[in-house]
């Protein structure tokens, strides 16, 4: 990817954006995107700190961080229950919750944390989800999750749905398995990267006040993107474990 470079008079560093240049860490023959690991560890650290603070002194009547964490847990549980179904959703709440919370906090970190003030020898820091490697990794994990869910519940009978209702559906069902992770990863990556670029360009053209409404809108769309990703992941798992032809077991509507 060609480098895009925006710099407001070479002095207002928050307006500087570089896309396509990375800080590489070398591990044998592997080249790792160092800036993605740095920001991902930051997000993971925040989640761990919030969890420890919320559960340090658990009260029967929650308040403060405990109340916030319990509300988040209930919200995630509702997503999983609606998409996966009453019978199977509980075991998937940690997976869906991890996806939602990490993506949500990653997206917001790109809008709220002044990453551009931290200088790197190459590349720059930004939201982990603004890197295609992060979103592809989450999409592939989602694919593995719904394959595991279907096979663990139905055995090899899971693959029977590839030829239902007629065998001619086989190539289309296989194609669907390839397009799902592509759709998940590029939707999230494209929206978060576009938001960072738009804010960067506006800061370059009209510094300080005008970009603020766009940043607020970016926070809203970032939260929506986390919700969409987690909901679709739960919906795919729900499809994999759904019972067909038994006349009564259904899971909730899909996104």
From TrEMBL:
SUPFAM superfamilies: F1F0 ATP synthase subunit A. It is a multi-pass membrane protein. InterPro entries: ATP_syn_F0_a_bact/chloroplast, ATP_synth_F0_asu, ATP_synth_F0_asu_AS, F0_ATP_A_sf. Keywords: ATP synthesis, CF(0), Hydrogen ion transport, Ion transport, Membrane, Thylakoid, Transmembrane, Transmembrane helix, Transport. The chain crosses the membrane at residues 32-54, 92-112, 132-151, 188-210, 216-237. The keyword Iron does not apply. It is found in: Cell membrane; Cellular thylakoid membrane; Membrane. Its main location: membrane. It comes from the Bacteria. Belongs to the ATPase A chain family. HAMAP family: ATP_synth_a_bact. Key component of the proton channel; it plays a direct role in the translocation of protons across the membrane. This is ATP synthase subunit a.
